[in-house]
Amino acid sequence: MQIQNFTMDFFSLKGKNAIVTGGNTGLGRSFALALAKAGANLFIPTILDDEGTTKGLIEAEGVGYEAMQVDITEQGAPKKIIETCVATLGGIDILVNSAGICISDEVENFGREQWDKMVSINLTAAFELSFEASKFMIPQKSGKIINICSLFSFLGGQWSPAYASTKHGLAGFTKTYCDELAQHNIQVNGIAPGYYKTAITEKTRSDPETSQRVLDHIPANRWGETMDLMGTTIFLASRASDYVNGHILVVDGGYLVR
Ligand SMILES: NC(=O)c1ccc[n+]([C@@H]2O[C@H](COP(=O)([O-])OP(=O)(O)OC[C@H]3O[C@@H](n4cnc5c(N)ncnc54)[C@H](O)[C@@H]3O)[C@@H](O)[C@H]2O)c1
Q1: How many domains does the chain divide into?
Q2: 91 falls within a domain
Q3: Which of 69, 110, 152, 248 could link 164 by a cystine bridge, Cβ 3.0 to 4.6 Å?
Q4: pLDDT recorded at residue 1
Q5: Domain of 94?
Q6: Domain CATH number, residue 147
Q7: How confident is the model at residue 158 (pLDDT cuts 50, 70, 90)?
Q8: Does residue 46 have its Cβ closer than 6 Å to ligand 1?
Q9: The pTM is what?
Q10: Which DSSP state fits 123?
Q11: Rounded to the nearest 5°, which phi and psi values hold at 69?
Q12: Chain centroid offset of residue 30 CA
């Protein structure tokens, strides 16, 4: 391919249709808005009602917006989500598996119930949604799946035996699905955010000592702002990253190198 053929349009998502699970809060909202700013229509499956805030932000970008109140772990929900997205927006080009939870407790209090809940949201739902999306992406010979991993896809981590386990699992799933789907021109990558100010990190931030310990570990010397993830999201969802596959892109202000 001639290098002259490269254009900034490679970053455009104009006319693409995207799903972001949990896309109306925290990091999910920034992924959704980034995709909308690059031209994609959005479909948001969520259990939370944000009273139209995300809808307003997305529609202000002049793209389509559809939402669905749904628990992504319910039997049959992933199939219904993908099929409703295709029926309402007209297709599925980008899937961002962002919905996730972190139940934290002492090891001796963290039992099977907490474990199963985290596995079903953080890992099984991402698998099932990707499985259902791939049924449309394979015949169209294109697609982007972005799994929201974590620094705990690489590290251990106290206070939740299941968080690092599910996020390591999600990184492994990213690589296996890449290996299977690359032949169909589908790219499956992960984003590993560092520490960001959202609901999921509230407990860490509320303890001044823990919060300072985190900060001391970040070369950028600040917590991440949700906006810090938006360029990465557009890149991994666009033509510009078609030869990036099976990669977990860390966006952490340098945390992992210290
Ligand atoms: N905030 C951080 O510092 C950070 C760092 C690394 C990774 N992450 C990951 O980013 C992702 C988004 O987290 P966040 O920080 O925005 O927190 P958040 O709590 O604001 O977002 C989680 C979202 O998941 C949705 N969700 C949870 N269970 C669901 C279910 N059963 N069905 C449908 N939706 C469900 C919630 O409604 C919410 O919208 C998570 O996967 C998290 O592990 C966050």
Answers
A1: 1
A2: yes
A3: 152
A4: 67
A5: 14-253
A6: 3.40.50.720
A7: confident
A8: yes
A9: 0.98
A10: I
A11: -75, 110
A12: 10
